[in-house]
Amino acid sequence: MSAVRRTLAGKLPLLIWLVALVLCVGVILRTHFVADMSAFLPSNPDAQQRVLVEQLRDGTIARLMIVGIEGGDAASRHRASRELAAKLRQSPRFIGVQNGESATLARDRSFYFNNRYLLSPAVTTEHFTADGLREAIGNSLDSLSGSAGMMLKSLLAKDPTGETLELIDNLQQGGGPRVADDVWVSRDDSRALLLLQTSAAGSDTDAQAATIAEVRSSFEAVRGQSGDQANAMRVVLTGAGVFSVHSRDAIKFDARLLAGLSTVFVVILLLAVYRSTRLLILGLMPVLSGALAGIAAVSLGFGQVHGLTLGFGATLIGEAVDYSIYLFVQSGQNSQGAAPRSWEGKFWRTVLIGVATSVCGFGAMLVSGFPGLAQLGLYSMSGLLAAVLVTRYVLPSLMPKSVNMRDIEPIGARLTSAAHWLARGRVIALGLIAAATVFLCVQHAHIWNHDISALNPVPRADQELDAQLRGELGAPDSRYLLAFNAADEQAALRAAEKLDAPLRKLVDDGVLAGFNSPARMLPSLATQQARQSAMPDAATLRSNLQTALVDMPLRADKLEGFVDDVQAARTRKPLTRADLDGTASALGLDAMLARKSEGYTLLIPLNAPASNEKGLDLQQLRTALASSQLEGGNENLHVIDLRDQAESLYAGYLDEAIRLSAWGLAAVIGVIALALRDARRIVRVLLPLAGSVALVMAGLVLSGTMLSILHLIGLLLTVAVGSNYALFFDQGDEDTTPAQQHRTIVSLVLANLATVVGFGLLATSSVSVLSALGATVGPGALLSLLLAAVLVPAKRTSA
């Protein structure tokens, strides 16, 4: 019975491992992967940061997609634009599709005309008095000779006061894209342009990917009907959703490719040493287990996994495979028999100290206010713990009793001699570390990149295309915003109306070049009702018209249509958001009235004068708007510089990461001190870690690279990897046999090769944030091993 129990006890770790793998796979199959920047935004932002966070996550700006049709001749592009717009308007994936067609413009003009008396700010009691009518009609007659004369002449009988043209002018201020052949085109007519608003949020990368696919398939269908010019045309897309999808795909592709290449190299390397397929498969089990555990843990902890975290998984190959290399090579499972118990205890103690330092280093990230940073911390901790547990409790029970491993004694002997030779360069190594430290102290103000673009995974060419297409559309500068949190839609519209007068004064004073307001597109219910009350009854209006038209070339009986429309407007139902569907105003209104789970956020874009190179004086704006007396208090009104907010957001992110890393490193020092309890040994174990970090940082700065948050993660991983090397070099003593010493150094070199190649390949990634990790950890791991050999020399042992 006891034998059965021992057998079951021996198989229990294997059973637990298999069940855990199945559970992890089940979690991963249900995991949602994202690639937008929302994971790198604070989970508890302040009031101004919240506006930026909400816009990036689910704002209308994040739902906009710009489409350009290039190639072919102009006529083919214009026709393709019209046909593509018609197809996309039938799709539920799009809320709005605009391409400048006159049919859309006609709908807008019809909407403005039919609702002109509810929309026009000129509608007051005075406007319909005899004097008010005389002035308004006189202005309309004077404008007949202008550029809008033809339109005004056709509207004069029903709109003698010119409300329609005034509304169109107000809503189209700031210009727009060029129109050719009834569609929007670039300035040189080399592209036809479309502006789409997607139903899916910009942060929903799966839905955005499906939306992009529909645009492309619809374009292919349109292109197939374009004759000889079809093959010459192509479609380009840009926008927040497009960036998210492209970034996710690039990260996935690079992660899979580089992980595959790393795996191939590790397989070749281990086969050359193990000469056993079974040991090779066993050696990769901790890698697989760590990656699955890391992704599953992040999915359970955060509800989603960021693409960068997934990419970070490729790096686990170089770290997790180390544990099995240490076990197989150092365990002495060859013709010489099993290693002694004393060695086994020392081996696992050293490995566990190394793992503990890694967990402490990355554990500090878990308390970060930025979900992306916390994800990386949780992934690293879970992955490394799973890898070492599998190595410790699962692999030994699966290892064969006898392995015909390559004879590594000659290699180990030469490597040991090389390590002793390297130790002679201790003074040189210390000098280089000191020089690097001094250099970093001198350059401390120029080490870290505080620009949020350091986290931008979007290639420069795509960023340039985005700026070009936005410029061709005539999109205004959206750097400055007024934001106001309101209880409901009507409160937001009333706030916009109260802010209108002080903002107009700032425009008149030259402080602002202009602004846009949702109140121009949809006045509040109270304002519409006030305008209805200001309209006179039919008899009064006819009497006022008779008086106003004295000595004017218009007769009152010719304006009966005007009288009828005013009477209809007096009693009609006030406009709501739903009435704007199908018009250009709908998209603009949605961009400025952001609906939240609780209430609305009013967003008013402000345009700085072109001559103002320093930007807007935000304090001056706040002072000018302080007397607006908004509902809910002016403390809910924020004047925001989005560029400054983004930069300060990332600066705070970086500062927090540095601070947490410092706490993590302090914990690493504490773990090593607690484990070694010898000041001299503590110093010589920590010195290679500090030296590799200093040399890598100095090398990156000297190469012209400013460090980002990803470089910082790489430095933490360098410490995690390097601690294993220093600890194994430190464990040598008089009781260590030459064979054990040789196996130790061979295992360290093999592990180091796996790590350096894994991260070295990552440095070649086209995704800048992944290449930053590789460029940091690759050289950092190599330096950690070399400095450990130099500064923590193993004691010579006699045969």
TrEMBL record:
A Pfam family it matches: MMPL
Coiled coil: none
Domain Membrane transport protein MMPL: 180-399
Keywords: Cell membrane, Membrane, Transmembrane, Transmembrane helix
Membrane topology: Multi-pass membrane protein
Cellular compartments annotated: Cell membrane
Transmembrane spans: 12-33, 257-274, 281-302, 308-329, 350-370, 376-395, 427-448, 657-676, 683-703, 709-729, 745-763, 769-792
SUPFAM superfamilies in alphabetical order: Multidrug efflux transporter AcrB transmembrane domain
InterPro entries: MMPL_dom, Mycobact_MmpL
Protein name: MMPL family transporter
